[in-house]
């Protein structure tokens, strides 16, 4: 399925298409990007009886030592069975800081930019999969991975996850949906 435009407007349709495909394949794990918790709450409505992992930015992403997702929201999600992790971006992390200070090109940033050729949501879906694997919330079986181009969700993939140290063992098995038109994010 392809969307005419990226963004939040596609969230419910993305999650529904991902759920349908997961059921067809017999999958029961979903990983999604959720900065504020809003996408994770929608996922709770749709992905009943699934193991849900919501991945948000690391503490200090905007303000030093402060979370992006409010503690209260995180607690509400966790009380409903969602594993919520805050982690450094798997495909930029410290390399972004080095690139800003010293210029140059770095491998993880190249991988991220290559994934963005399929859209920002594809890069995000792969990245949150790695972050969830590193946090220990996945079984290693195929999952549904959901990302977006800013707010909300617009991309869903079927992924064989891998830890960061084994990145090249990760497999994008299927693209369930994504925006057809998008701008390259920086």
CATH class: Alpha Beta
Q: How many distinct folded domains?
A: 1
Low-confidence stretches: none
CATH topology: Pyruvate Kinase, Chain: A, domain 1
Beta-strand percentage? 15-25%
| Named CATH architecture | 3-Layer(aba) Sandwich
Mean of pLDDT: 92
* Widest beta sheet: strand line-up: 1-7-6-5-2-3-4
Class from helix and strand fractions: alpha/beta
Please state the overall shape, judged from the principal axes of the Cα atoms.
Answer: globular
- Write down how many β-strands occur, each being a DSSP E stretch of 2 or more residues: 7
Features:
7 strands; single chain; Pyruvate Kinase, Chain: A, domain 1; alpha/beta; 186 residues; globular; 6 helices; seven-stranded mixed sheet
Molecular structure report:
By secondary structure, the chain is an alpha/beta fold. The protein has a single domain, classed as Pyruvate Kinase, Chain: A, domain 1 (3-Layer(aba) Sandwich), CATH 3.40.1380. The protein has 6 helices and 7 strands, in the order E-H-E-H-E-H-E-H-H-H-E-E-E. It has helices spanning 11-25, 38-46, 71-79, 93-102, 107-115, 120-135; strands at residues 2-3, 29-33, 51-57, 83-87, 143-147, 155-160, 171-179. The chain has a 7-stranded mixed sheet with strand order 1-7-6-5-2-3-4, with helices on both faces. The relative contact order is 0.22.
């Amino acid at each position: 399925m392809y969307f005419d435009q990226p963004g939040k407007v596609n969230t419910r349709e993305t999650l529904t298409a991902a759920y349908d495909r997961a059921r067809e394949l017999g999958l029961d794990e979903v990983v999604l990007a959720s900065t504020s918790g809003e996408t994770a709450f929608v996922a709770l409505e749709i992905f009943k009886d699934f193991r849900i992992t919501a991945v948000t930015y690391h503490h200090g992403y905007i303000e030093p030592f402060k979370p992006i997702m409010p503690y209260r929201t995180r607690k509400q999600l966790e009380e409903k069975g969602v594993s919520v992790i805050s982690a450094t971006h798997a495909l930029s992390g410290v390399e972004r800081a080095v690139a800003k200070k010293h210029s140059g090109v770095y491998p993880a940033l190249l991988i991220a930019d290559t994934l963005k050729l399929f859209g920002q949501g594809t890069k995000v879906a792969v990245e949150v999969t790695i972050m969830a694997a590193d946090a220990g919330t996945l079984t290693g079986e195929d999952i549904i991975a959901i990302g977006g181009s800013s707010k909300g969700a617009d991309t869903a993939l079927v992924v064989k996850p891998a830890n960061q140290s084994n990145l090249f063992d990760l497999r994008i098995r299927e693209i369930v949906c994504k925006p057809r038109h998008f701008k390259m994010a920086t």
